[in-house]
Design brief:
The complex is a heterodimer of chains A (275) and B (445).
Chain A: H1 2-26, H2 42-51, E1 66-67, E2 70-73, E3 88-93, E4 98-103, H3 113-125, E5 136-138, E6 147-152, E7 165-171, E8 174-180, E9 186-188, E10 193-194, H4 198-207, E11 215-230, E12 233-246, E13 252-258, E14 264-265
Antiparallel strand pairs in A: 1-10, 2-9, 2-12, 3-4, 4-8, 5-6, 6-7, 7-8, 11-12, 12-13, 13-14
Chain B: H1 2-32, H2 34-38, H3 48-57, H4 60-64, E1 69-74, E2 77-82, H5 88-98, E3 100-106, H6 111-118, E4 124-133, E5 148-154, E6 160-165, E7 170-177, H7 182-190, E8 193-201, E9 206-210, E10 214-217, E11 219-225, H8 228-236, E12 241-245, E13 251-255, E14 259-262, E15 273-279, H9 287-301, E16 308-314, E17 317-324, E18 327-330, E19 338-342, E20 346-352, E21 354-360, E22 366-369, H10 372-382, E23 389-400, E24 407-418, E25 421-424, H11 425-430, H12 434-444
Helix pairs in contact in B: 3-9
The chains are: A alpha+beta (275), B alpha+beta (445).
Chain lengths: 275, 445
């Protein structure tokens, strides 16, 4: 009987050891993070995100795009345009490079949402109302019921920056006022290069914990963001702009991912370089 | 009852023995699985399957293996093509990824025929700085061969290409599907920076010789560097790492006996050069696998890869460096960004942590370089003969700009590879050539 008891004891102990070792083998080893290892299977990541209550747009592409480093000369482009705005009472703040303007007479915008937008665009395109108005494009994701936000365009893509933005406010079915900044013409600093894909950008946000559980990714767009200022120029780089909605609070935030390196863009740093 | 009792005993003994054997097997499996201890992933185990997965899962392979230069003809003259708005090699690479190869036919291996192709104005040429294998690109050829090429001839047709290997003058005709190079041809016609040149045969292949002195743009960058701890964490992990500092002030971090990282000395003499070594008995991988394995190490280091391109492959070494506007950047006078070396005992990776982070707008500064023939003649007079020159390129020499700590200027300079070594033309001019001549003589004996 003692012998049998010992055998049972051995069996139980070794079975426990086997289970432990089996679990150890099944558990994937802790790998160092690197570009290659981080290339976790797309499907798995999508499944993980779904399990965390994160919804992605259906057509989120896994294809690389391309973009430039762009530079814009830091100049005051708006102050000397005030005299051309014959329909507006305009003022310019040099410290923040911002133009504020109010229509001299009533500018009505009536009809449904689409019709109102069309009338606001027509208002914006009139050089007597808005300088460089045709250089701005409507951005629905940044607009509200009574404010229409436009971003500066260029032949290389749209610029998403506070220094290149036009917001037209509507009140009581009429244009109330607008606020505008303008970066001026932009040019490539280096040749065209490939970027990461929009899905890659969202994945980076997820792995960097920038994408909270129970959120919905509404839209991912390639646009230019300010990187820094160098030698009197603003340097812009291609970035994936990700609009995220919190499913509970319905709050919408926009985050940026460096489309070249996949790093999250937090704040713009500034260098003063002279030569 | 007696029979049942015995059978029960038998099964109990059998189950216990099986449990013991199983635990031994599992334990041996864990202990012999290097991955669990060195944190190396399967991809270093030289398994073709893992390489194939690497290839399909990681698009950066194509980013690292974009051709670096493009050439075309205008009015019968050959030019290096450059367009600041349209990156010609990148445009080609986008199609290259999509196209399907249906047939590869080996053609002539005669130098005369090869040179006819080089001087044929009906083709746009794209070049790699050194030979790559057909097999590197999955769609190209699944057969187990080691054929190589470094030059692509794009004709007017979208149904075929010629590929060429400079080192042995071998030409291939490749039939393709799903390719459209119309945009590339359009860009080639409108490329506005055009330097007239000729291809001259040197020891390792054809180098671009610029016919007369040319002004080259000097570019500037704000640079940054990752910390030592970043690379230690990426390459060795965060636990079980010990460190030891040697007399030269360089610290070596070790993970077990097999994996080490030597970091640069801190202070003003910091050249940001790291050496990673992983000891492992293994066969030296074949050409394609060397290229793929080196890509794995490049990713693993965690450098910014935006401008990083394949640069050179010699024997068991593969190197990568940053290409700015089609020109390679040499660090610390004549180093590259990443150099991997495979031996039967170890893999070593020399790398530099510099990151060309922010491009500074071009301020009009240029540097004039003499005609290539003129530079070569002066090297000949110094004792470096044409037979020993392997390659000549225009590369960027990194110079610190004293107006800002992290600002560097990239100054165009002639770089010459001879006796397996890259140096600037000026360095070769100052080199005591008798060192290499003695080496050659002893090799001959």
């Amino acid at each position: 009987m003692d012998h049998k008891r010992i055998e049972w004891l051995f069996l139980v102990v070794f079975l426990l050891i086997d289970i432990y070792l089996g679990i150890e083998i099944l558990r994937s080893p802790v790998s160092l993070s690197n570009g290659n290892n981080n290339e976790t299977d797309t499907t798995n990541i999508r499944t993980e995100m779904r399990a965390d209550g994160i919804e992605l747009p259906k057509n989120l592409s896994d294809t690389q795009a391309s973009g430039y480093y762009l530079a814009a000369k830091n100049r005051d482009y708006l102050s000397d345009k005030i005299s051309n705005l014959s329909n507006m009472n305009a003022s310019y703040s040099k410290s923040i490079n911002t133009l504020n303007a109010t229509p001299k007479s009533l500018v009505e915008v009536k009809g449904n949402q689409k019709q109102v937008l069309q009338q606001v665009i027509e208002f914006k395109n009139n050089p007597d109302n808005v300088p460089y108005g045709k250089h701005f494009k409507y951005e629905a994701n940044m607009s509200g019921d009574n404010n229409y936000t436009f971003v500066q365009t260029s032949e290389y893509g749209n610029i998403y920056d506070n220094s290149a933005q036009l917001t037209i406010n509507v009140k009581d079915h009429a244009i109330a006022n607008y606020t505008m900044t303008y970066m001026g013409p932009v040019n490539p600093v280096r040749e065209l290069q490939s970027t990461i894909s929009p899905f890659h950008a969202v994945r980076v946000m997820y792995t960097d914990r920038e994408l909270a559980n129970n959120s919905r990714v509404l839209k991912v767009k390639l646009g230019y963001s300010e990187l820094t200022e160098v030698r009197g120029s603003t340097i812009l780089l291609p970035s994936w702009l990700v609009w995220i909605e919190n499913k509970t609070s319905k709050n919408i935030t926009m985050k940026r991912v460096n489309a070249y390196t996949g790093q999250i863009l937090q704040t713009n740093s500034s260098y003063n370089v002279t030569k | 009852m007696k029979f049942k009792f015995k059978l029960g005993n038998f099964f109990l003994t059998l189950a216990t023995a099986a449990a013991i054997v199983l635990s031994i097997v599992l334990w041996i499996f864990i202990m012999t699985n290097d991955q669990r201890f060195s944190h190396l992933s399967n991809q270093t185990q030289s398994s073709p399957v893992s390489r194939q997965q690497n290839r399909t899962r990681n698009k950066s392979l194509y980013d690292l293996y974009i051709p670096t230069n493009s050439y075309g003809f205008k009015d019968g003259k050959l030019y290096r093509l450059y367009d600041s708005k349209n990156n010609l090699p990148f445009e080609f690479s986008k199609n290259f990824q999509k196209m399907k190869v249906t047939k590869i036919k080996a053609l002539s291996q005669k130098q005369a025929n090869y040179e006819l192709m080089l001087n044929n104005p009906n083709f746009i040429q794209l070049t790699y700085p050194d030979e790559v294998t057909f097999k590197l690109f999955a769609n190209f050829n699944e057969k187990n061969d080691h054929r190589e090429f470094n030059r692509i001839f794009v004709p007017d047709s979208n149904h075929w290409l010629y590929l060429g290997n400079d080192s042995n003058n071998q030409l291939y005709r490749v039939s393709i599907k799903n390719a459209n190079f119309d945009r590339l041809r359009k860009y080639a016609k409108t490329a506005h920076f055009k330097v007239p040149m000729t291809f001259v045969r040197l020891k390792s292949g054809y180098s671009a010789f610029y016919n007369h002195s040319t002004n080259w743009q000097v570019y500037s960058y704000l640079t940054s560097h990752q910390s030592d701890s970043y690379f230690v964490a990426r390459l060795l992990g965060t636990s079980g790492v010990s460190s030891r500092t040697n007399k030269q002030g360089r610290t070596t971090y070790s993970l077990n006996y097999y994996t080490r990282l030597t970091v640069p000395q801190s202070g003003p003499n910091n050249e940001h050069d790291y050496l990673y070594t992983h000891y492992e008995k293994n066969k030296v991988p074949a050409a394609t696998n060397r290229l793929l394995d080196s890509v794995y190490y490049v990713h693993r280091i965690g450098l910014t890869e935006q401008d990083l391109r394949f640069f050179d492959a010699d024997n068991n070494a593969v190197s990568y460096t940053n290409y700015i506007e089609g020109i390679p950047v040499f660090l610390n006078d004549h180093d590259v960004q990443v150099a991997t070396n495979f031996t039967s005992d170890s893999v070593t990776v020399n790398f530099n942590s510099i990151n060309f982070q922010i491009p500074v707008p071009f301020d009009g500064e240029t540097k004039s370089l003499e005609a290539t023939t003129q530079m070569v003649e002066s090297l000949n007079r110094h004792g470096l003969s044409n037979e020993n020159i392997e390659r000549i390129i225009v590369g960027f020499h990194v110079q610190k700009d004293h107006s800002h700590d992290s600002l560097v200027n990239l100054v165009p300079t002639y770089y010459v590879k001879a006796y397996g070594v890259w140096q600037t033309a000026n360095e070769w001019q100052k080199q005591d050539m008798s060192v290499y001549q003695h080496e050659l003589e002893s090799e001959g004996q």
